[in-house]
Amino acid sequence: IEEAEVISGQKFLDFLIEDKTFFVKEMIRVETDNLSFEFDNLDLATEFEKLNREEKSFLMRKYILGYSDYEISIQLSLSRQGVTKKRQRILKKIRERLLR
What we know:
The structure is a single chain. By secondary structure, the chain is mostly helical. Helices cover 58% and strands 10% of the residues. It contains 5 helices and 2 strands; from the N terminus they run H-E-E-H-H-H-H. It is globular and about 50 Å long. The chain starts with 8 loop residues before the first helix and ends with a helix.
């Protein structure tokens, strides 16, 4: 009888991550403001869905629709610096939730 190797949970998880056959890449669809897009990260999609409508719309203008801070500032009647600070606050909020 051979002795089975006991591996830690972390080693096993690392093995599964390296062996991509165990994972099916699944995209998570999020819909808001008549737009639909997909995340490849469930945690990020979940945190995005927790944002209020204004925060979602703001990030969509920047990252989905590709508007510059200047263009967003005109649309929302804010200064360009105000747009930058608002974006940083929203991203910090998401980052802090993801790191919990």
